Amino acid sequence: xxxxxEFRSREITAPLVAEIHREAFRPVRLMEVCGTHTMAxxxxxxxxxxxxxxxxxxxxxxxxxxxxxxHIDAFVSAxxxxxxxxxxxxxLVRVPGSDGSLADARAAGARVEIVYSPMDALALAAREPERxxxxxxxxxETTAPTIAATxxxxxxxxxxxxxxxxxNKTMPRALEALLDDPQLQVDGLLCPGHVSAxxxxxxxxxxxxxxxxxxxxxxxxxxxxxxxLLSLVRQVxxxxxxxxxxxxxxxxxxxxxxxxxxxxxxxAPVDSEWRGLGAIPASGLALGEDFRRFDAMHVLDLPxxxxxxxxxxxxxxxxxxxxxxxxxxxxxxxxxxxxxVGPCMVSGEGTCAAYHRYSDLKTSRRTAAxxxxxxxxxxxxx
Length: 382
Prior knowledge:
about 15% strand, 3 domains
């Protein structure tokens, strides 16, 4: 089955929607794995275009959301040291750990700097050699190559005051753990475009074959997403599980080999704790032996606790597709974007943040396990 890239054209968005309505003649449950897909689906109102037979679930594709509270505590512990500057992406700042957030530490006088790339953090370390700059290395395969390149550059420059807290995670092993959960019943995966650009579309072939699961790699424009969903519906109808690359203008079968080489040069696979999914073997990236001098956990002797999620927070179950955000007792009350309790309400890619911003709360409350659809019927236009 081949998914034509011309589906991205705006002129055929409406025909794509109409085709999904024709093909989706029986219930199908599909999960988008990428947080960027989650936000795009909400922002463009894609759920409202789909028939009642198509149910969309959001998976563990938000890197900030799956970072466990113990790592957040390590970030906070580092920045509370007077010689340390934490240079981080903005969506990490307000994520609460068990002992506050980076924003709380900054309000108390600690120095937290927002950067747009790890190279910005390295430049900060070069400008302020008397301070230790710590970069929280959070993200999937999308960010790992740039972090690896930054560490290699730090080694070339001989900058000993630049450190990272390794918290990167890799996607395929997490998807295996997710699909091994008997409580999750899905018919297909909308696979992440950004991650797939690095690891390649064929990385999902074992999932399709082992779980007889439809997979489609998609981009982020509405037509990209609709093309991916149509591919999944067609695969389910044909009882044919394969990997359909609907984003071939960016994603190849083998991925970005140079980026993969960078990751392999600096990182080594390690067991990793995921919020909601628990410990997953070989799903994280630790610094290799030659780069331990850049590991803040080792150099600063930072503790890594097994902190629990905040009481009442259901982020873990939301990340596994068991619940939707309105099913969390804190959602929209104690937990809002202004006063978040859990990470899913903080990150721009978080499912709770997406629901809170775009959903009609009166009609969206339901459990994912019930399999009931709340999308509005197709009105004949995108």
